[in-house]
Amino acid sequence: MNKREFLKASGSMMAGALLSRMGVGQAHKEAAAKANRTNWAGNYTYKAARLDEPGSAQEVQRLVTSLSNAKALGARHSFNDIADSSGDQISLKNMTEMTLDKAAGTVTVAAGVTYGKLAPWLDAQGFAVHNLASLPHVSVVGACATATHGSGVHNGNLSTAVRAIEFVDGTGQLTTLSRAANDDEFNGAVVGLGALGVITRITLAVVP
Fold first, then answer.
1. Are 76 and 40 spatial neighbours (Cβ–Cβ below 8 Å)?
2. Range of the domain at 147
3. Quick count: other Cβ atoms within 10 Å of Cβ 38?
4. Phi, psi torsion values for 45, nearest 5 degrees
5. Closest by alpha carbon to 114, among 74, 167, 79?
6. Is position 121 within any domain?
7. Number of domain units in the chain
8. Domain with 176 in it: what CATH number?
9. Is the pLDDT of residue 10 over 50?
C-alpha cells in the first residue's frame, strides 16, 4: 500500500468511526429525551437506573423504606447532577393536589405543582402568592426548598411564604412542621435543599 492509499484508507476509517459515535450519541440523546430523563435544558442526562412516580405521600413512604439509594426529582430545573442517583429517582410530578383555605389565607400544594399551574388556579379564586418564580415550569416545592429569589427587590424570596411543610424522612416517617407549632425546627427546615427527606406537600401564605 502506497502513502496515498494509506492516507485514503485511514481517512475513511476515521470518518466512519466519527459518524458511528455521532449516531450513537444522537440515539442516546433522543432515547433519553423520550424517556424524560434529561434536565429541562437537555444538557444533562440522568444516570439513575429507575424512575419511580408515586401519586401520594404514602407511596413515597413505601418507596423510601424499600429503596437503599434514591433521590427526589422535581421539575428537572438544574444544570448538574444534584438530582441524579446511583439507584432510583423519585419523580413527584403526579402529586398535583391543591387546596385553598380562604379563612386562613393559605394554599396547600402537593410536590408536583408548578407555579404555572398554581398562579392561574389561585387567580380564578381571587388570590395570589406574594412573589413568583421567573419560569412557570418551576415546582413550588423545589423553589421554596432552594430559596429561589423570585422577582422584585422589595419582595421576600419564595420560601418566605411557606407556613408548613410535610416530608418523608430517611426512615420513611411522614413529618409535618409548621411556623405556628414548630418554630425552631420549621425555620431550619424550610430551605432544606432536600437534606431532610422528600417533601410531599407545602403550605404557603396567599394574598387577595
1. yes
2. 98-205
3. 16
4. -105, 125
5. 74
6. yes
7. 1
8. 3.30.465.10
9. no
